[in-house]
Amino acid sequence: MPNDALPSVSFCDVIALSSLLIRSAVLLCNIRNVLATSGSDAGSPSQGGARFRRGGECKVELTVREAANTVPPMSRSASIASDTLTRPKPAAVLELLKPITWFAPMWAFGCGVVSSGVPISERWLVMVAGIVLAGPMVTATSQAANDWYDRHVDAINEPNRPIPSGRIPGRWGLYIALIWTALSLALAAFLGIWVFWAAVVGLILAWAYSAPPFRLKKNGWWGNSAVAACYEGLPWFTGAAVMVGGLPDWRIITLAALYSLGAHGIMTLNDFKAVEGDLKMGIRSLPAQLGVARAARFACFVMAFPQAIVIALLFSWGKPIYAAAVCVSLLVQFVLMARLLREPKEQAAWYNATGTTLYVLGMLISAFALRTIGA
Asked: Which residue, 335, 330, 339, 333, is CA-closest to 355?
């Protein structure tokens, strides 16, 4: 099969599947509303208060007042909003998809585009489609899935989020995540076989991160690895694959993997702000497992070591100027890391604004180095 061939499922078939999912979601939501309206009069088992007797006869055992008292810990305002809303408003959907989280994978995708060495003017349309895939599609899918499976915890800790507040009513949070998954696969299939399979891997990790039985987010080793791959390595690979129309050069894949490994440390820094809560909830983040001080040292090592390898590789590939630029960036990061290690919890956010910025600039420098050697 040529590199740019589509998978056996045609693009039209995938679009048809996406349309079917959307229609099904609307139909399910309408059925739910009908049952909710008629259930109070007919004693429908959908109210959750029916018990089946031996002979199959159904009798409602709970009164309306008792049923109201058994509502799960979603806020009362969410219940009221869910009764009055049948479909979420676009603003609530956008908030659920969290546009602020799209930047990191879009940046990594851009690094992949640069590293390919292909002029943007030759494939600008597929490049734009790839940017949409990396940020507003795959990353947004992961955010919707995460909020859906965290909705009960968010009802307690962050009740104003779209799902617990009722602005995303019923099961629409799940429907949106499923619809975005289908649309992501449709767009990825249009962009080529390697892009399609990269999207498949990214979406599997996105769902496994949040959904039971895997819930990778409950363990810092697995969860941070999944996020790092989805935010750095896979988008970089995808950006290059979109531009070359096939499998990227091995040097591109190598640097994408190294920077993805380093991003594991960045994800660890993000866990410092919730150590106490993680311990109470049984979430085994690295700060919760190793302690704050050890986790900070580990994060610094994981961020620095891959960059050192990148520097050595750039020197070996005959790009000493680019290697020196990444080296300077790493040396400045060492200075910033010293401050981070003195007060990890207090300085983690500061380091993310300074040291992490240098890290991603090093990614772009490395991408330009690959571009100049025709990788």
From this structure: 333
pLDDT at 85: 61
What topology does CATH give the domain 249-375?
Four Helix Bundle (Hemerythrin (Met), subunit A) (1.20.120)
Q: Which residues of the chain have pLDDT under 70?
A: 1-85, 374-375
Q: What is the residue extent of each domain of the chain? A: 1-214, 249-375
| DSSP of 136-188 | IIIIHHHHHHHHHHTHHHHHHH-TTSTTTTTSS-TTHHHHHHHHHHHHHHHHH
Residues 6 or more apart whose Cβ sits within 8 Å of residue 79: 71, 166
Q: Which residues pair with 90 in a beta bridge?
A: none
User: Minimal CA–CA distance to 257: which of 235, 241, 274?
Assistant: 235
The answer to whether the bond into 88 is cis (omega within 30° of 0) is: no
CB 239 within 8 A of CB 113: yes
Predicted TM-score (pTM) of this structure? 0.76
Q: Residue 318 has which token pair? A: 């005959």
Element (H, E) at 274: none
Instruction: State the angle between helix axes of 234-244 and 124-132 in degrees (0 to 180), rounded to the nearest 10.
Output: 160
User: Is the preceding omega at residue 164 within 30 degrees of 0, hence cis?
Assistant: no
Tell me what pLDDT residue 282 has.
80
How far is it, in rounded angstroms, from Cα 262 to Cα 231?
Answer: 11
Q: In whole angstroms, what separates CA 40 from the centre of its chain?
A: 39
